Each structure stands twice: as C-alpha cells, then as structure tokens.
Amino acid sequence: MGKIRNIKKPRLHSEGTTTLQVGFLALLLINGLLFYLLREVTLLPFYVVLIVTVVAYLIIVNFFRCPIRIFNGDSENTAVAAADGKVVVIEEVEENEYFRDRRIMVSIFMSVTNVHANWFPVEGFVKKVEHHNGNFHKAWLPKASTENERSTIVIETPAGQQVLVRQVAGAVARRIVTYAHAGEECFIDEHLGFIKFGSRVDVYLPLDSEILVKIGQTTVGNQTVVARLSGKA
C-alpha cells in the first residue's frame, strides 16, 4: 500500500487548545492575585504557589504533545504500539463484542505524563468504528475493557487478517476522540485518535500472532513493535 505522508514538526495537539488556554489564564489569575495580596507582607507563599502551578501547567503541556513519528521498519504483517505507556496485559481472551472468538489482547496503560495521541497499530482498511457509552472504572482493571466508555475500531490488513483496537476511558479520562472512519485506508504512521488524561488502549490480535513485548515493558507509540502477524487470513 502506498503512503502519502504530510510530515510536520512536532507541536501541541489541537485537542489541548482549550485546556491549555484556560489553564494559562488560571495560572496568571491565581498568581497575579496572590502577588497583589502578599506584596507588602511576604512573597514566600507566592513563590511556592508559582512554582507548583508552573510545574503543573508544564505537565499538562507535556501531556498534549503531538509527536510526528515515522516507522522505519517493514510494516507488512507488523503490529506496532498504539500508544505511549506500559504493557499491563498480554493474555488470550474471549472477545465477545465483534469477533465472538478468542484473541490475544495486548493492553497499554497511559499515565497522565504520557503522550496521549493514539496510532493505528496495523495498516489496512477500517471496517468498523463504534463508540460505546459506559462507566469510568480505573483503566487498569480488567472490567474496564468491557464496561467503561470506549471506542472500537476494526482494521483488516492487506493479508485479510482482522485486528481490533479499543480506546478505553479511565477514572480520570472523560473524553475519547476517534479520528478513524469506516471505509478508509489507514497507516501506522497516522493518528487513530486521542484520549484525555490517562487511560488505556487494547489491541486484539489473531491467536497465531508472535507477541514481541512483555508485561511491564514501556512502549513508544508507532515505534515499538508489539507483534508479528502470520499473514494468513
């Protein structure tokens, strides 16, 4: 499949524009008011609050980074990490929402310090995109994959294998954004979506896939090779 890439310099993600603008105004207001009230008494509390609020704001800025990454390996029959984070689950499970059979689930948990853009883990054709309302259990709990608010994306590879990607909201994350659309081609260098403030991404792979990551391993979205697919439909 040929790729048409629009390469741009890394920037802040558009999903964070409002949050960052409101946060910056709040930072100015809080610290400006505190300086005004304490300027003739002692400025020590002002400096403490200033440091804390600036650090907190920089963490939020870090969270909304939007890196543009290019995978330099062979993308054929390759599944890459759909997100930055840590591998928390690798197990054979019954996937009852779409496949209704057994698959290998690889789950990556994203902390609030990770980049929260999500990438397509495989190349191919988007067969289905569906959003599901649900609860907001802690993202690392097993029931989060089936009970939490989530978006499901099904991709068929050029070899005819199907891979399911599930964006899962957590206890803090309250908004899932999905850019994938059914009927479109997708490439691993492209953003699949975005999840705000900590969550997880589950990828369901065919049972004959060769898993190349381990529990606890740190992943880099669109760079870490998670598995090799057999190439057999």
Q: Kindly state the number of beta strands.
A: 16
Q: What would you call the shape?
A: elongated
Sheet-strand content, in percent, reads: 25-35%
Query: How would you characterize the largest beta sheet?
Result: 8 strands, antiparallel
Strand order of the largest sheet: 11-7-8-9-13-5-4-15
Radius of gyration: 20 Å
| Low-confidence region ranges | 1-9
Structural category = alpha+beta
Average pLDDT over all residues: 84
Helix count equals 3
Sequence of secondary-structure elements: EHHEEEEEEHEEEEEEEEE
Q: What distance lies between the first and last C-alpha atoms, to the nearest angstrom?
A: 17 Å
Fraction in helix? 10-25%
Entry summary:
This protein has helices at 17-38, 44-63, 144-147, and strands at 11-12, 65-66, 78-80, 85-95, 101-110, 117-119, 124-132, 150-156, 162-169, 176-178, 185-186, 191-195, 199-205, 210-211, 218-219, 225-228.
